[in-house]
Amino acid sequence: TDLVAPLGLDRWQQADCWPGAVVDGIAHYPSTPPGPLRSPIDGCRHGELLPASVVEVRAAVGCASVAFEAWRNVPAPRRGELVRRIGDAVRARKRALAQLITLETGKIASEAEGEVQEWIDVCDYATGLSRQLHGLTIVSERAQHRLLEQWHPLGVIGVISAFNFPVAVWAWNAMLALVCGNAVVWKPSEKTPLTALAATALVLDVLHDFDDAPAGMVQLAQGDATVGALLAADTHVALVSATGSVGMGRTVARSVAARLGRSLLELGGNNAAIVTPSADLELAARAIVFAAAGTCGQRCTSLRRLFVHEDVAEKLQEKLVTAYQHLSVGDPRLPATLVGPLIDEAALNHMQAALMRAEHEGGHVLIGGGQVRAGGNVPGGGHYVRPALLAMPEQTDIVHQETFAPLLYLMRYTRLDDAIALNNAVSQGLSSAIFTTDLREAGAFIGPAGSDCGLANVNVGTSGAEIGGAFGGEKNTGGGRESGSDAWKNYMRRATNTLNDGNALPLAQGVRFG
Ligand code: NAD
């Protein structure tokens, strides 16, 4: 309630233009049974989620389709101006948005603010991009002919997002999609609907005062997997960008492929780092602790596997154990806290089950893993754990799985080739890192026979990517790329045009006809 006014949600309460009524900052849809919303911080109930009905999802896509037909004709730099203004509005509400992210995800304040900063950064990036949506001119084999390659707006973009980045993932997609001339329908995680509501309200505020923006360009369809499945199956959605677990990606990909639509998948990771004998161990330890324990291990890029050369394993292990001892676990709203709660009880159960299984497979806990009971800086009603570091004899079955919790498996290696092979041996392919001061080792890791992940870093942890690069991963991570580089091409369609400037009509490949 304290955030309703700072986030501008009061303007949208009871507003006719909202899809479904908004009461007390919460979207109410009339169709399906409500579910309680509880903060992972203390389990307090802060609202109810009433998912969109089939009719409402169709209406959202329908409105977006109509809006697209007007928006695609607005010059791209003018579309960039809209996104620039969105960026300014986000700057003005950064703190309040970050507080809401903390309330819904349990992220510490600094990380929540960093997530909002990503939205701001991607606005700046997309604004510049709006003047750079370039194609090609290509020479023709025929006299007085030439080929053009143009990029045109694609249509309605459906965005399905995960709980752990409740605003950044949508912003990466939506800001680029908007400058590319598309309309967007967002199905946020059912665990973080308030952040989605606040983000959408902010965009609607900006759209309201922007003359060229057709109504209905930005839509929100709240709900769980059922609503996501409706979006995926809708033939009017040109591209479905889905971020979440591998299981979700398989289901969505099947549904989109069945109607020959396009999907962009950003799925689970099982990220590894290699620490070689030449590594700066102090730097490596700091990077490893942030990557493995930051966000309570709930990033797609969180570090889960660590391969350390046998010569430095003892020393690094000592450093890590000491650092883990000093990690302050507790209420993410307190400035001293570094590790907040897990998202819910299911996440706690998964972590405990993975720990038991790892021990059964020959591993032993070096530090952490236990639940932190309420008291002091730890509120009751949340699921707080001490980040765990385990020594594993080898890369066993459990190590092959992504457990979305602060669990780091430490394994020793002798030959770098073997460590790289182990890095690549899992089914996911999102992020990876090597810590070394040896140019050849670094080169081998980022070379064609090195890490098979979409992100391969040198002396930088696996998490915390910048928006300027293309973000995404290979294999079961889904193959999608978002954010920087040429990821914008996902949100456009390519047209090849052959132009004849002459009076003759030569046919390609020298074909004669008549
Ligand atoms: P999840 O798969 O449970 O849910 C993600 C989203 O998909 C939610 O909005 C959910 O409602 C929707 N969904 C689930 N099943 C669906 C279905 N059958 N059809 C349509 N929609 C469906 O994931 P989560 O628990 O919210 O997030 C954690 C997972 O997301 C982890 O595996 C993490 O690695 C991954 N993730 C990946 C990236 C990336 O960029 N690669 C980023 C963030 C999170």
Automatic annotation (TrEMBL):
Q: PROSITE patterns this protein is in? A: ALDEHYDE_DEHYDR_GLU
One Pfam family of this chain:
Aldedh
Residues of the active site: 266
InterPro entries per UniProt: Ald_DH/histidinol_DH, Ald_DH_C, Ald_DH_CS_GLU, Ald_DH_N, Aldehyde_DH_dom, ALDH7A1-like
Q: What is its EC number?
A: 1.2.1.3
Which Gene3D superfamilies would you find in this protein's record?
A: Aldehyde Dehydrogenase, Chain A, domain 1 (3.40.605.10), Aldehyde Dehydrogenase, Chain A, domain 2 (3.40.309.10)
Keywords annotated in UniProt: NAD, Oxidoreductase
Which stretches make up the Aldehyde dehydrogenase domain?
38-494
* Keyword Iron carried by entry: no
| Keyword Cytoplasm attributed | no
List the SUPFAM superfamilies. Answer: ALDH-like
Query: In which domain of life is the source organism classified?
Result: Bacteria
The entry describes its oligomerization and partners as: Homotetramer.
Family recorded in the similarity comment:
Belongs to the aldehyde dehydrogenase family.
Question: What is the name listed in the Swiss-Prot or TrEMBL entry for this protein?
Answer: aldehyde dehydrogenase (NAD(+))
Q: What organism is this sequence from?
A: Jeongeupia chitinilytica
Recall the taxonomic lineage recorded for the source organism. Bacteria, Pseudomonadati, Pseudomonadota, Betaproteobacteria, Neisseriales
